[in-house]
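Contributing: when you submit paired examples, paste them exactly as shown. First protein:
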Amino acid sequence: MEIVTENPVSLAWIGDAIYSLKARNHILNKGIQKPAAFERASAKICSARGQAAILNELNQRNFFLEDEEEMLRRGRNANVNTTAKNADRKTYMQATALECLVGYLSRYHHEERLNQLLDLCMEIGDTL
């Protein structure tokens, strides 16, 4: 694992942007274009609850490598001063953990693993 000097919240901000863009492109590619339907589909995948559910499913599948587990831990333990509008703190921190991992994979140029993770997140998100 690389020596990661960035704050996990900074990585989560990067990860949130990448994850949201991937999710919205995925939704458009499915042919969902009407604004209300697009927003509902996006909320299922991008909300803190949706991300926490996806993270739990990935954990059950033993998807994560050892260094990724460390980034998830750092994301869950990050000092975040805000909370989600519609989720409890634990759920919000699980979503932050997933976003932190996405930010880490992007920032440290693990493109193949990032694409594998995001594709699986979208696949799981479609089943929510």
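Second protein:
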Amino acid sequence: MKYDVVVIGGSAGGLTAAISAKRFYPDKSVLVIKKEDVSMIPCGIPYIFGTLRSVEDDVLPTERFLKPLGIDVLVDEVTEINPKSKTLLTKSGRGISWEKLVLATGSRPQIPDIPGVELEGVYTVSKDYHYLKELRESVEEAESVVIIGGGFIALEVGDEIRKLGKDVTIVVRSRLLRNSFDPEFSEMIENRLREVGINVVYGHVEGLVGRESVEGVKLVEGREIPADLVILSTGYRPNVELAVKAGLKVTRYGIWTDEYMRTSCLDIFAVGDCVEHRDFFTGKPFPLMLASTATFEARIAGANLFKLQIVRENRRTIGAYSTHVAGLTLAAAGLTEEAARKEGFEVIVGRATGPDRHPAKFEDTSMLTAKLIFSRDRGAILGAQLAGGKSVGEMINVLALAIQKRLTASELYTLQIATHPLLTASPVGYQILQAAEDALAKLRAGA
């Protein structure tokens, strides 16, 4: 078999890379190889426990997107890549040649090195359809569930399982969402979780206890938390084995790529969770595993497979996040205040809080809190954090663009906006403008 473009991986990054390749190069033949017979929408996985009715409701309709474009799909596992001969081998024995190759091999759950992880009733949040079916059935049978981890997935899964009437405990080493938010936002989400009945316990896990099935989580401090089921949400690890075997440059953070997502072999591209990302401000590598980032990189790769026609102005990655837990939406982009100060930036912080509708009597009104971090020297925005209703989910995208374009507090303060009583905050109290004004006032006062 011979194809012009072969994409390995059928999740968000692989799907987008294949579609982009076909749209920019319609005469090229494109094949997607995925080892899962059923693919999941990765960001929707936490919601299979409560909001969605079943695991099937989160299935990614891969072929519906690809077949109308003339993109072929092969369900198989790639076992070997040969960059010199431009060939690959699959588990079923197929040999396929390619002109350009895209690695979108994703990531897998990281298992902590503690006793008891092999017990029955201990799960990770995998992206495998059949595994998730089993996990959901086990959750329905359990009464007490302990989730180890304090990141987005841990909180979202915990909140969804809570909706089933289960006793849910989240065990975390330090504050919640610490890599993406400053302490005051971590406190907001912790308070909201406690309000809806989720237990938040701080401590280091010594191990899981039980004979054949898990019966509890033991902390180093001596406390033991009973559990019918334990979910490990302690991060993910990039799938780089194929790249390593092929002799590509790989670091501890993933596959190395240039700004156009080309690997150390220029005919092989890589996108998504399997890739090393470099921070927008510092250039330092950092772990970032987001479907939104994967699709952005996949568009860059797909467009530039055979010639550079989409210039990537900014060569580094902005971490932009959003989540909705226990009725509270949190979103962030760029550096936190804590991270910016640690890197040595002198910063000014602008804050604003107010209703996201006007007047605030509308039923779906939420209080929206904005925190914007600016550099003191020229007032350029370094980061943003928001908390409130669902409008936060789109507002953070405006701020991510502001960070990418290095806008200043003055430019954000004079941002021309559209507002509507049913949709947004008041034009008088629009939180982005108010937070920028707060920062400007501090800059001028020399605060």
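If you have annotations for the second protein, write them as plain sentences, like these:
The two ends are 66 Å apart (CA to CA).
The chain has three domains: 2-106+239-304, 110-235, 327-445.
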